[in-house]
Write a structure and sequence with these properties.
The complex is a heterodimer of chains A (about 160) and B (about 45). Chain A has helices spanning about 15-20, 30-40, 90-95, 120-125, 130-155, and strands spanning about 1-5, 40-45, 50, 60-65, 70-75, 75-85, 90, 105, 110-115. Chain A has about 160 residues and is α+β, with helices and mostly antiparallel strands. Chain A has one domain: Jelly Rolls. Chain A has a 5-stranded antiparallel sheet. A 4-stranded antiparallel sheet of chain A has the order 3-8-5-6, with no helix packed on it. In chain A, a hairpin with a 2-residue loop joins strand 5 and strand 6. Chain B has 4 helices and no strands. In chain B, helix 3 crosses helix 4. Classes of the chains: A alpha+beta (about 160), B mainly alpha (about 45). The interface of A and B includes residues 56 and 118 of A.
Chain lengths: ~160, ~45
């Protein structure tokens, strides 16, 4: 996994393109550029690990290209429970709930991800409050979709409370 | 008892700290982390 500088690298991240993704939809180009300019950009090769189970969760990641997979680890069980594609995030749930990561994330193809630390998240609120609000709504909507998906899976597998 | 334990977050809130700022501080200050975790768990009814 390699850290990239937004300027001077061969990777070009364009705010207007990222607006097409789920998480940055409706955010202004200025707000997205603020995150790109102040966040850490990572380049992952196939199989590279983004974080591990138990790691401190003080940041989340947005997939700018490529695809990741989340492998839930519970005791001896390891299960691929989610794929994360363009414009989707991973890590926010653990960050907002102050819990360590409950699984590991690795790249299933060469990928570029943007790291948004909780410090940068707070800076966005201070400097681009409207975009912070939109981003937070987008995060909530994506979490809601995951909850709905999980509810469907519970029903399909007859797992009751 | 609960009111007495929430002094740091209450103080930050009174100073105008945003929710995102309190979250950021919770990840760097163990005592704020403990307070916020307790608040989150209380709100979940645990």
């Amino acid at each position: 996994m390699n850290a990239l500088a937004r300027q001077g690298s061969s990777v070009f991240l364009v705010a207007e393109q990222l607006q097409q993704g789920s998480l940055f939809g409706a955010m202004s180009a200025d707000g997205i550029n603020y995150l790109l300019d102040h966040g850490q950009i990572w380049q992952l090769d196939l199989g590279d690990q983004l974080y591990d189970c138990g790691d401190v969760a003080n940041r989340f990641f947005v997939v700018c290209s490529g695809e990741l997979r989340f492998i839930k680890i519970q005791g001896e069980t390891e299960l691929h429970t989610r794929s994360i594609g363009f414009g989707e995030e991973i890590g926010y749930v653990a960050m907002i709930s102050l819990q360590p990561h409950g699984g590991r994330v690795e790249a299933t193809e060469p990928s570029i991800v943007l790291e948004v630390s909780c410090d940068l998240y707070a800076q966005l609120q201070a400097n681009h409050p409207q975009d912070f609000g939109i981003l937070t709504l987008n995060l909530a909507r994506d979490m809601a979709r995951n909850v709905q998906r999980l509810n469907r899976l519970l029903c399909e597998n007859a797992i009751h409370y | 008892m609960m009111m007495m334990m929430m002094t740091k977050i209450k103080a930050l809130h009174a100073q105008g700290a945003s929710a995102a700022t309190i979250l950021k501080l919770a990840h760097t200050d163990p005592s704020i982390h403990a307070e916020l975790s307790q608040l989150l768990e209380r709100n979940l009814g645990r």
